[in-house]
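Researcher: Can you fold this with D-glutamic acid in place?
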Amino acid sequence: VPTITRTGGAEFDPAPIGVFDSGVGGLTVLNALRRALPGESFLYLGDTARLPYGTKSAATVQRYAVQAAQILVDRGVKALVIACNTASAVALDALQRRYADLPVFGVVEPGARAAVAAPASRVVVLATESTINGGAYQRALLGLRPALRVAGRSCPLLVALAEEGRQSGELVRLAVEDYLRGLLPLPGVALSGSRVEPLTVLLGCTHFPVFRPVIEALLGGAGHRVTVVDSAATTAAVVAAELAAGRVGVAPPEAATRIELLATDGAARFRRVGRYFLDEPIAAVELVDL
Ligand code: DGL
């Protein structure tokens, strides 16, 4: 039974919302969540000891996701957000069954919604190997709009570059260019505008939004009609709407808030790199063991 607090006339459960990812990538989702829910507190876990999730089997990722979620549940969170596409794709159902009393949200369905809201009828999903090979985005997108043409590209190196704090520079440009090869005529060999079909690029990994400027520069360079979308804002909107409609309610913006960060390894590295994903310096990261 949630503890109910009253602030400014509103009733809400002051417990934090639990958020987890394999590393710092999910901080892009946390950022959108705190904008959509400015009165809420958050407890974030980056499972940095076992990153990357995206190259591992579905069974392993499911096991990791359950352990990560359990740490947050043990600390009393009132809702869970799986801020990792790889884990959402293989573990959302299992976590919803296991924590039937808690609202549990994934990022794949909201990401697919962001993509179908864009004008193009062609979508390319950039994600981890596991997410692409499992086909979760392909299914979610075609379920929302059966006429879409959907292609997937797995981009595992981008997770490593993001975790290293590299968001731009020659190495990033080369990696992005290699993964995007063949999607559109390269800048400099542009076709006339009418012959180039619009394209939506869906960033199906929470580590990838930091590469948006590089991706846009490469694909938009020749005047192509490219829209780059990710799941952070749409996930935050779903969480805000469902909490407001449900039993736990939403804390009013003036409520006292806290953001606590946990990692399973490399607290100093998490602080150093995480600031680029959270858009602010990180003061403390608590190390936890799974
Ligand atoms: N950030 C995660 C995702 O959204 C996974 C990165 C990884 O650990 O491979 O898929």
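Model: Folded with D-glutamic acid in place. Residues 188-194 have pLDDT under 50 and may be disordered.
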